[in-house]
Every structure is written in C-alpha cells, then in structure tokens.
Amino acid sequence: MKKTTVKDLLSTPELMGTEVEAKGWVRTRRGNKHVQFVQLNDGSSVNNIQVVLDMARFTEDQLKPVTTGSSVRVTGKLVESMGKGQTSEIQADSIELYGTADPASYPLQKKGHTLEFLREIAHLRPRTNFFGSVLRIRSSLAFAIHKFFNERGFYYFHTPLITASDCEGAGAMFQVTTLDLNNLPKNEDGSVDYSKDFYAKPTALTVSGQLEGELGATALGQIYTFGPTFRAENSNTPRHLSEFWMIEPEMAFYDISDNMDLAEEFVKYCINYALEHNIDDIRFLSERFDKGLEERLRFVVDNDFVRLTYTEGVRILEESAHKFEFPVYWGADLQSEHERYLVEEHFKKPVILTDYPKEIKAFYMKQNEDGKTVRAMDVLFPNIGEIIGGSEREESYDKLLARIKELDIPMKDMWWYLDTRRFGTVPHSGFGLGFERLVLFVTGMTNIRDVIPFPRTPGKAEF
Amino acid sequence: MKKTTVKDLLSTPELMGTEVEAKGWVRTRRGNKHVQFVQLNDGSSVNNIQVVLDMARFTEDQLKPVTTGSSVRVTGKLVESMGKGQTSEIQADSIELYGTADPASYPLQKKGHTLEFLREIAHLRPRTNFFGSVLRIRSSLAFAIHKFFNERGFYYFHTPLITASDCEGAGAMFQVTTLDLNNLPKNEDGSVDYSKDFYAKPTALTVSGQLEGELGATALGQIYTFGPTFRAENSNTPRHLSEFWMIEPEMAFYDISDNMDLAEEFVKYCINYALEHNIDDIRFLSERFDKGLEERLRFVVDNDFVRLTYTEGVRILEESAHKFEFPVYWGADLQSEHERYLVEEHFKKPVILTDYPKEIKAFYMKQNEDGKTVRAMDVLFPNIGEIIGGSEREESYDKLLARIKELDIPMKDMWWYLDTRRFGTVPHSGFGLGFERLVLFVTGMTNIRDVIPFPRTPGKAEF
Prior knowledge:
The structure is a homodimer.
Chain A: H1 6-11, E1 19-31, E2 35-41, E3 49-54, H2 60-63, E4 71-80, E5 88-99, H3 115-120, H4 129-151, E6 155-156, E7 162-163, E8 175-177, E9 203-205, H5 210-220, E10 222-230, E11 243-252, H6 256-277, H7 279-289, H8 293-302, E12 306-309, H9 310-319, H10 336-347, E13 351-357, E14 373-381, E15 385-392, H11 397-406, H12 415-422, E16 428-434, H13 435-443
Family (chains A, B): Belongs to the class-II aminoacyl-tRNA synthetase family.
Subunit structure (chains A, B): Homodimer.
InterPro entries (chains A, B): Aa-tRNA-synt_II, aa-tRNA-synth_II, aa-tRNA-synth_II/BPL/LPL, Asn-tRNA-ligase, Asp/Asn-tRNA-synth_IIb, NA-bd_OB-fold, NA-bd_OB_tRNA
C-alpha cells in the first residue's frame, strides 16, 4: 500500500537504477534548449527530487504549463545526481500534468514571502518549504508525545471540550449555544432562558481538561490528555492563540519529585525524537531563520535541569545586577524576562522552579507545611520561559475544601471533583504543556501563529 | 521512572520472590480471623493483584477502613498464587491507608450496577472493571491510529475547531461567542452586531475537518486529522453524541481504489492492535456483555472486505426476501438495517459499497462519467452498519464549481477550498471514521454514551 515518496527516492539506495514514478508539485523549472530541470516536492521532505528532462525527448510547448505550483506525474530512471548536495535524480521518460498553477495568480512564486503575508494565505502556506518543515516537526512531536506516554503505560483520556463548569479559572471562556441570538428565549425577568439551550444550561469551551483528567488518574492510574483548549482573552501577542492544543498528564501515586522527573524526561524525549526524525527540517529552519536552533535543542536534551525553589529563584534574581522591566520580590508572579534570566544567564541550563506562593497558583495545588507555598513546579526554557506548569495536587479533602471556600469557588461545580478526595483519595500529580510552546521551541519560530495550520486569534477565524 | 503496576506484578516472572510495593484501590476485602484477602487494582489491568494479610501480623482495627474503594499502599513478597486463575499474589508485610471510601456513601459497592446508573456517576465509573476495560481499549485504539498513520508517512494535521464557515454541510452547528447574551450589541436594524464578537463575525464549532484536511494533503501529501467534532442535532439515540472524536485521513494521488485499500488496512490494523494489546479487556467484556465479541473482531480482521457498487448492493437488497422497515430503491439512502443485511446475511463479510447516487452524497465527491453517481465509498460492518465514509474528491475546478453553484453553497466560504483546484490540483481521496463507532465495535458496547468518558448529549453536559 505504501507509495514511493520523494523522501524514499532520495534515501533508498535499492531504488537506484530502477524505473520509478514521482508525483508532486513543481517548486521550480529552469534550464535551456537542451536540458531542463524540475525540482519536485510532494511534502514528504523539505528536499526536492530533481527531474532531468532531455529536451531531445520533450517539447517546450509540452513543458510550458510545468510552472511553479503545478502538479505532475513523472516516470523515469533514478540515477545518482551530479548536482551539489543531491543524492539522486530522475532521468525523465515521461511527464504528465495534473494541474496548472497560473503564474499570474498563484501567490507562491519563487521569491521569498514574509511570514505576515503567508499568514494571510494560510490555506496555501503548507506548500512552502518553510511551513512544510514546521508542520512535519509538529506532527513528529505529536507522535512522540503519544509514543512516550504509551510506552510508560499511560492511557490517552479524552476530556470534554464543552463544559458547564465555570470554575476552571484558567482563563476567559467562549460560550457555546444553539439559541438564536436574534430571537433569544427569555425568562419572565427578561434574562435568557437557558432551559431552551442545547444542554439546558449555559455551556462554554474548556480552558483545561485537568479536573476531568484527575478523575481518570484516580481510576486508571496514569492518564494524559492531548486536545484542543480555548481561551477567549483578547490577547493579540505572538504568544497567544484562542484555540490551541494542550497536553495534560495526570498520575496517581506521583509526588512532586516524580512529577519533575517525568516532565524532564518527557520534554527531552520529544525534542530528541524531533532531532532523530526531523533533522533535515530542523537544519533547514536553522539555516534560514535561527542559526542557534539545533545547538539549543541539543543543549536542552544534554543537560540535567536545575531544580530549585521559587524562593531561591527570587533571591538569585534580587541579588543579580540585571535590570528587569518588572520588579522582582517574593510573592511576584515571575515574568518571562525573569525566567529567561535564570535559564540563559544564571544557570545556563533549563530550570525547574518549585514551591510557589499559594496566592499566585491554582486552588488544587498541594499546600506545603509552611502555610505559604504550594507544591507547584514550572519548567523554564531558554527563549520561551515557562514551557510546563504543574504540581502535586492537594489530596486532603478538608484542605482542598477549605481552599475552595476561601476562594469562593462555586460548590455546584465542584462536587464531582471533591469526590476524588472523598473516596479513596491518593497522592497524585500532573502538569500541562501548551503544545504550540513546544513546537515554537523546536522550530525556533517566534510567532505562535506560525506553528499551527490555521491560527485563531481575536478577529481571525479564516479557513 | 516507570513504576511497578499491578499489571507488572501479574505478568513479570522476574519479580517473583522479590519484595514489591503495590499502590491502588481496594476492589474487595474478605477473609476471616486468620487470613484476609484484598483484591487490589490500580487501573493498569482488568485483573487485580491479591494481597494476602496474615492476621497474626495485622489487627482487625487496622483493616477496618480497608473497604471497597479505599486506597492503600502495600509492601510484601510476590509469590505464586494458589488461587484459581491468579498467577501471583502479595504476602503483605505492611498495608498503609491513603484514603477511605465510606461504605455508606461510596456509590461503587460490590454489587452490579446498571449502565444507566453508571452514566449518572460518570466521574467515578472509570473505577469499575467494566469502564476500565472500555477506556483502556479506547486508549489503545487511539494509539493504534497514530501508529498506523505514522508508519505510513502520514502527518497529523490539526484542523481548526472554531470555524466561520457554515458550508461544511455535515450537520447542525453550535455557535461560539463571547457576546453577553443578556446584553447583546445590536445593529441599527436590531440584528446582533457581530463586529463586537471575538472573531468579529459569527463562528461555530466544526462538524468536519475534511476541507481543511484537503489543504494539508495537497501540500504535505498524506495527512490525517484526529480530533473532537461537534453536531448540534437534537438526537437522543444510542448512536449519537453532540461531541465526539473523528479521524479523517486525506491523501494526494490516491484514487478510490487506493482509498478502499487504505481504509480496509487501517480498520483491520486498529482492531488487530486491540486484540494484541487488550485481550484481557476484550475477553472480560466478551464474558460479561457480549459473548460473540472476540469472534466478531477476528472475523473482520481475517476476511477480505467485499467490494461492490451501490447499484449492485441495492439490487441484492431488492431481490432479497427480507422484510425491511425502510423501503429500498435506487436513490435511497441506505439504512443501518440494509447495510447490516448485506454484511451479516448476504455476504457474511464486511462490505465496501462504492459509487453512490450523487444526490445523497456531498458536493466534493468526484463525479463519475455516468452523470448520476459519485466515487463515494462506505465501509459497512456487522452490528454497526456504516463505520467509514469516504470518497475520491472532485479534482476538476470546473466540475466542483458547477456542483457548488448547483447546490447554492455560499462562495464566500469556498474560495480557499477552490484554490486547491485552481493551483496544482491533484487526484486525491480521503475518508472519515467516527472514533466512537470504532470503540463501540471493538468493545461490543451498544450505547455510544458508554465508550467516551464524559458524553455530551442533548440536555447533558455534566462533569
């Protein structure tokens, strides 16, 4: 069933000297009256296969529609290439056109395009070398994630996207409704009658699957989620999407130390997987956009992450001579500049900070004996700052309930979550990784809109 | 990093005779003054590890809170079990309680529960053997899907969930909004002012990622999607969810025959993966709920699927003596009863029907020469009926445009899709599989609400 791809043609010595077939899109055609060269790509690799057309066998007219972006089927003999950096090429016997790409209107001509321009034509940008590489790396990383957890006995657990809880607290939510907004059913007091809505109550898109993930972990032991997540914040920054993918593992019988071990092993595994499976794409991006990329990836894979408490981290920042835009003091939520200083300047290694002040962390984190901090952990990376956030979870029913009351979280949304602590509660931990943050790091891209096929941001829901 | 699970304790001969640790939830405790037996489960297997407590070393008081649903840590020596069907057990040195489960309030006591009751406590039902098995199989199938496509050079392509298109046509949609429904901004004519909405226009949850998937395939070659999908139909049936997961592969340079080969190989691969990795769970479900399950799975894996046209299929149905509830005639949309008759009664094999009347299929399917049919394919299964639907896609810009106009599909939503045919169009194909349909088939369950952790159906969005 498997078809021969351009990647196969470039990397399978057994094919050399045989009759082959290649199907793909023309990147360029150049040459003269005697010989023409077509660079053909089918998405399987950032590299093209060169098709050599002996013009004694083809006519100019025949090749006229073979322009950048057109699609063709080529047959011929695979031979060693004389060209620099190319292993093999096809000496064409035939070239058949599937579809033209009118040079006057096809937007992806040879000349370079800005990333901003390509965002406007997101439906075509996967056809560029550049986005091809990003999307192949994205796909590899996704597979690495599934493979990592599968090998360790974790179950992939699908938490719901539509939720009636408004207590997740991680951010502003999108409402989901089937009511006709131009003809809303109303209660006697004039408010919207949600009993007529699809779910008979107000519902929204989830901002995190963690709480449901804990239900899975306290039954199946070790689970992970990997799915779309939503934030309705009006944030027009290079780091925010309103629809993104998140990975949230949750593990029974893990304390914070196990959690840190897992997070470190996990993120190294994923990066290493990309280095092993996508080195051509990484090097292409390295050369074009970010010279330090490959080195930075190896730096993370090869170094033990430094582990210290938030309190120790703040002390280092306070004692440093560095001028920060945002002030540093115990109790402050660290900014990306602080996190990057610790990683890039001070330790020159990835860092895991633990035991944050409880006021700046979520209600479900395990409370430390000191009454001031919780057993949180954030993994900090060069260039990115926080890439993973997690914690040991509070397993004491009484302590969790007290914190929920303290923060005025509505109990109507919490009974099922509290049941995990009422019945057979266990120590457990988990963390969350924004998938696009990882893809940003591994591709060296700087704008999150460029690492997802069709970005959703305020005012933008095209394609 | 990997921890020793109950599954390991039951299946690792090297552990026999060593000191081990087990953490999990108590399924049952029974025994007498001399010896007590705890069945311990941690979600890693449908099978429990038996913990033997010599009452010369433990007190009744100490074991009193060790009730069904409580959580414990046990240490002791792993020895061969004398019990029937058990390979190993732990002779306990210590037992430590993590959390109680008050027998007066814990809903999952030993006695059997109806599936209806368990649906009401979906936050706890993963703790039952039954849902544990279903969810482990679900997770395995999801991994098998990723593995299958990864091995064949497909890229996992994340299509957006929030969409501004209303032309997908596969079903009723949920609206997504950040407008305050109790205080809607209005235009001068009294209609809702969507320029104030998050995306500055009406948006909805996707009913299919296929159109965007085609953008991926016509750039990267072979892609697949695997993500949540939504239908806002008010269907309260055992076969419908308003939020479910769907797999949609899309392949450049595949004709309908390649598409059928891939679909058959794919579904057999997934089922076979579950048979190889989840045989304990499958046999448990087989014994408890569906005696024919394992045999039915092997039947699908071991048989070539029969391939015939819709026209031939209708003829067989018309000529059969079977009484159908719904009439059969050329042009009719086949019902589950018709599909199952072909599979279960006539051919006694899975069936792929092709070349359906264009009126009952989607606008994007490749039009046959006869002017009446399209190159659609449906894969039909025992018990389930249609499990996969797909087609070769119409690659001709002119034919596709004509069909779009014929069906009055708004062009404002179609320009980007049509660009795939304007620029370097290629023959391509794809199909869709509702993930829960596959999980239903492999688990033998009959209600789709029982194969997803937290089902969303009309009026139901709990947890």
